[in-house]
Design goal:
Structural class of chain A: mainly alpha
CATH superfamily of the largest domain in chain A: MetI-like
Number of domains of chain B: 1
CATH class of the largest domain in chain A: Mainly Alpha
Largest interface: A-B, 62 and 55 residues
Helix content of chain B: 55-70%
Oligomer: heterodimer
Number of strands of chain B: 0
Largest sheet of chain A: none
Helix content of chain A: over 70%
CATH superfamily of chain B: MetI-like
Structural class of chain B: mainly alpha
Radius of gyration of chain B: 23 Å
Largest sheet of chain B: none
Shape of chain A: globular
CATH architecture of the largest domain in chain A: Orthogonal Bundle
CATH class of chain B: Mainly Alpha
CATH topology of the largest domain in chain A: MetI-like fold
Order of helices and strands of chain A: HHHHHHHHHHHHH
Distance between the termini of chain B: 24 Å
Radius of gyration of chain A: 24 Å
Number of strands of chain A: 0
Chain lengths: 314, 289
């Protein structure tokens, strides 16, 4: 077990390194001068620019700049924000917690909806199956930011008394905080639930064609018991992993949703950083998000191997 | 059709379920193609179809629907219907060109990787894994923000972001098809490896690629409109659905149609490709995702 975790993590290392290169190049590929952008103004003396350049190490060869940056990043130094002049690391983590909470609630909602509709379409035939298929196709066609905008419109028109831009910090009011995240999470969850639904359906159908289900049926077990003890239990393993793998979609989607509902998470931070051309922040957000997705994938693999003895990643 | 299907399955247990009958799938493909034709026709002939100049402002701002303006006007008095008709052009142009590039790159990389195998496979797939590690939308937004939202930048970014998906869909089946007997037979009569890969392996893996292309088109519609929604789309003043939706948000309680119009347009465009993908999956007998 420990060996497997180690192997999986080792395999992830080169990808992480590649991710860091992409994040580094992204910032160096900017139009114009990085030192100029860092100064935040175009009216600056040549000497001052030189000083900034030396301080940032921009006079070094590119590969040394990269190593220097990588070393700093590994020791938790993500650079200084261009706009606030504070360390990006201290800016990013409180926001990451907010996004993590939003993503978690959305993931739970998507799981609940997806498993329900997936089970329905696998167990019922005819009209119900078609209703679920149509519903899924429709959900797949409506982007989360459109859903969010329509939710805002709906509440603005018909329930103006319900405040929907009322984000409160968890520390101040836990239940109010969760309540304020429900609608944003719902707009994130709908699209993701489709993938979970289709995978649940496929998994249940796969399991129902297994011999042990036929045996259970033949010996006269009630359908409800078969569903509970055989189908759901065995079908849920792949479903859980799929839900885990949807994290990337949820993280990407939260950029839009946070902007629409004015939630102070990573997405809104990215949006603000782009608006103010705060490149160290953009770089850090991209890096942190990719790292989280990669680690989550490793976690999913390990969890999968834990529950399914046939899987090995040697 | 499915409602009238007799319950002819021997039992739920022994049968793998329900591939829909061919005819239904063909209906789906037909519907998808008709929707696609409408989209393309409106994009091509939009400027002559639109009743007004989509960028011309007028004092009649945020009017409700009238005979003169069927969907009303926006906050600076532009005709919403005209803007909707013309607003799909840039989105569709970016979508089609970007997905075409991603498809070509995916085919080349996936075929090379899967057919040659070994170290080549390892290097290509790990490189693609790097791109794959970034949430698609986050990478797109960061690259476009860094390079600037011009048409070529948007197209290239989106092409890069979707290439790994395409390459994976090609590579998977290539791995098994290359071991089939007809490949061995071709090799034994002296046909070159390149010809075998292109003429005898590629045609057999094209079905899942078509389905994935259709799904990627739908996803790209999302990505492009979402980027425009955040102000990172094709530059103004030409209208496009994403930025129309963003602009309309400020005044949406006063003029709901300015929000609902672009929303429906975006949904129609992505639904086109989803319907097409669903139909193609059944017609070509591709296993579910």
């Amino acid at each position: 077990m420990i060996r497997m975790v180690a192997v999986r993590l080792l395999l992830t290392l080169p990808i992480l390194l590649g991710v860091s290169v992409v994040a580094f190049v992204l910032m160096r590929a900017l139009p114009g001068d990085f030192a100029q952008a860092s100064a935040g103004t175009s009216t600056i003396s040549a000497e001052a620019l030189d000083t900034i350049r030396r301080n940032l190490g921009l006079d070094l060869p590119v590969w040394r700049q990269y190593l220097r940056w990588l070393g700093a990043t590994l020791s938790g130094d993500l650079g200084l924000s261009f706009t606030t002049r504070r360390p990006v690391a201290t800016e990013i983590f409180p926001r990451l917690a907010v996004t993590a909470e939003l993503t978690l609630i959305a993931g739970l909602m998507a799981g609940l909806m997806g498993v329900t509709t997936g089970l329905l379409s696998a167990r019922l035939r005819g009209v119900a199956e078609w209703a679920v298929r149509g519903w899924n196709s429709l959900l797949l066609a409506v982007p989360n930011f459109v859903i969010a905008t329509l939710i805002v419109l709906l509440f603005g028109l018909y329930f103006p008394s319900v405040g929907i831009f009322n984000y409160v910090a968890f520390a101040r009011d836990p239940s109010g905080n969760i309540a304020s995240l429900l609608l944003p999470a719902l707009s994130l969850a709908l699209t993701v639930s489709v993938t979970i639904s289709e995978n649940t359906r496929a998994a249940v159908l796969e399991v129902s064609s297994q011999d042990y289900v036929m045996v259970a049926k033949a010996k006269g077990l009630r359908p409800r018991a078969i569903l509970r003890d055989y189908l759901v239990r065995n079908a849920l393993t792949p479903v859980v992993t799929v839900t885990g793998l949807q994290l990337a979609a949820l993280l990407g989607g939260s950029i839009l949703i946070e902007t629409i509902f004015t939630i102070p998470g990573m997405g809104q931070y990215l949006f603000d950083s782009i608006a103010s051309r705060d490149y160290p922040a953009i770089q850090a957000i991209v890096l942190v998000a990719a790292t989280i997705v990669l680690l989550m994938n490793v976690l999913v693999d390990i969890a999968y191997a834990r529950v399914d003895a046939r899987v090995s990643y040697e | 059709m499915p409602a009238s299907m007799p319950a002819c399955r021997m039992s739920d247990v022994a049968r793998r379920p329900t591939r829909r009958p061919r005819t239904t799938a063909q209906v789906l493909v037909t519907v998808g193609l008709v929707m696609l034709a409408v989209l393309i026709a409106v994009a091509l002939f939009g400027p002559s179809l639109a009743p007004y100049n989509p960028t011309r402002t007028s004092p009649a701002s945020l009017d409700g629907p009238t005979l003169a303006h069927w969907l009303g006007t926006d906050s600076i008095g532009r005709d919403v219907l005209s803007r909707l008709i013309v607003g799909g052009r840039a989105t569709l142009l970016i979508t089609f060109v970007a997905v075409a590039i991603a498809l070509a790159a995916g085919l080349i990389l996936g075929l090379t990787s899967g057919y040659i195998g070994g170290a080549v496979d390892l290097v290509i797939m790990r490189a693609l894994d790097v791109v794959f590690a970034f949430p698609v939308f986050l990478l797109a937004i960061a690259v476009v923000a860094a390079l600037g939202p011009t048409l070529p930048n948007l197209i290239l970014t989106i092409a890069v972001v979707y290439t790994p998906t395409m390459a994976r869909v090609v590579r998977g089946p290539v791995l098994s098809v290359k071991r089939w007997d007809h490949v061995e037979a071709a090799r034994s009569v002296g046909i070159g490896e390149f010809t075998i890969a292109v003429r005898h392996v590629l045609p057999l893996v094209i079905s899942p690629v078509l389905v994935q292309t259709s799904l990627t088109l739908a996803n790209t519609i999302f990505t492009v409109t979402a980027l425009s929604f955040l102000g990172l789309g094709p530059p103004p003043p030409d209208p496009n659905w994403g930025s129309m939706l963003a602009e309309a948000r400020q005044f949406m309680e006063l003029a709901p149609l300015t929000v609902i119009g672009p929303s429906l347009a975006i949904v129609f465009a992505s639904l086109t490709f989803i319907v097409l993908a669903n139909g193609l999956r059944d017609v070509l007998d591709v296993a579910g995702r």
